[in-house]
Amino acid sequence: MPKVSVKVKWGKEMYPGVEVNTDDDPVLFKAQIFALTGVQPERQKVVCKGVTLRDDAWGNFKLTNNALVLVMGSKEEDVPAAPVEQTRFVEDMNESELATALDLPEGLINLGNTCYMNATVQCLKTVPELKNALLNYDPTSGGGTAGGLTSALSETMRSLEGGGAGACAAAAARLLHALHAAAPRLAERGAGGQLAQQDASECWTEIIRALSMRLQSTPESHSKPLIEQYFGGTLDVELVCSEADEPPTRSTETFLQLSCFISQDVKYLQSGLRSKMSEQITKMSETLGRDAVYTKTSKISRLPAYLTVQFVRFYYKEKESINAKILKDVKFPLELDVYELCSPELQERLTPMRTKFKELEEASVEAALSSKNKNHGDSKKEIKRKATLPYWFENDVGSNNSGYYRLQAVLTHRGRSSSSGHYVAWVARGDGWLRCDDDAVSPVTEEEVLKLSGGGDWHCAYLLLYGPKILELSQEGDSPEPMITDEASGPDPPTALA
Known about the structure:
The protein contains twelve helices and 21 strands. It has 498 residues and is an alpha+beta fold.
C-alpha cells in the first residue's frame, strides 16, 4: 500500500487527510509537512508509533491509513513587526516582509545539501525561451528518466511562477527524486545518512542533457532541440604538428559551454577563454609513428544566444583524496565581447550589428550633450514605444549576431571542496540583481555581484550565464524596420514537444 492518508499533528495543530506515497523518498513527505507547518525539513523530527523517520529511507517507519504522525520542530522566528503607524524601512524588514514589499520571487527550500540543485534551477530560470518551453511542457508525454526530470523541472518552474512556498517545496522534492533517478551518482549519502553535497556543474550538465532530449524549439529551428538552438555553439578547429611537416587537420566541434581554465597568469575571464583557444596537445602522428606535440587552434563559428562559462576551479588532490578548489581571483565583466574569439567568417557576419550598436551609442552621447544646451521646455518629447532588433541571424534563430553579451546569472560556491560548502544563485532581474540562497531571496547590487570573482573564502563564481545584449531603438531611429516584441529577449516563446 504505497499511498496512504495520515493525520499530521504539530503542536496544537492537527492536519487530517494528508496523502503520502511511500514509493517516493521520505524527503518528499517532509516537504509536504513544511508546506503545512512552515517547519524546514532539517528542523523536523517526524515520529510514528515511536519510530523516527530518516531522510534516506522509510525503514521501519510504517504508515497505515489514518495513522497519527507527530512532528516536532519550530519555525525560524521572524523579526517582530513594528507598530502599524510606524514607517517601515527596508533595513528593518525580515526576509518575508522584504519579499512582499519588493515583489521578490519564490525560492526553493534546501532538502538537505540540495543547494547545488536550487542554484542551478534559479540560473536556468533566467532564460525566457527555456522557461516558457518548460511552462508549456506536457508532463504526460513520458520519455524515461529524461522525461521525468523535464516534467519535474516543468512543475518547479510553474511553482516558482506563483505557486507559493508550499508548492515550491513539494516541487523541489519531486525534482530531487527525478534528478536522482536520472543521475544516481547525485544520490550519494554521507556516513550519517544525510545527502552528500554534489557539484553544481554536474547537476547543470545532467539537467541540460535531459532537456536536450525532451524539448523542441520554435518552428524556425527546423526541429532543432531547444538546448542546441539557444545554448549550442560550434568551433572551427585546426591541428598543426609542431614536430613534422604535416598538412593541417581541420574539423568542427560543438559546445554547450566554454571553460575558463585558471592558471597563474589568468586574471580576467577573457584571458582565460583566450588561452583555451590555442593550446598544445599530444596525439599520435601518422607521419612519425609516435606521439607528437600539436598546436590546437579553435575559433568560434557559431555563437549561441546564451553563453555558459565554467570556471574550472576544482581539481583532484590525490594526497587528501578530495576535490580541492582554486580560490584565485578572476575578474568577469557585466558585459562580455567575444568577437576576438570568433572565426574571420563569423566576425564578418557580426560586423553589421556591431556597427548599429556603435551608431546607437554615439547617437546617445550626442543626444545627451544636446539636451544640456536646451531648456527643459524645449527638450520635452512624447515618449514612444521602444523597438528591438533581433539578436539572432535571420536564418539562425537562437544565435547571437553581434558578439555582445550581458551577464544574467552567476552560480557561486563558498567552501574549499566541491563535496562541501554552499552554492548560491545570483540572477539579474530588470535593472537590479537578486541573491537566491535556497528559499531566501534578497536584492543585491551590481557591486556585490562583481565581488564574486574569488580570491578568498567568500562566494566565488563557478558558472556564468551570459544572455544576448539587446539593441533597442526608438521609432525615430533611421535603422531598418525593427521588430517589436513583447519581450526584449527574443521571438515568440518556443513550444515544448514530447
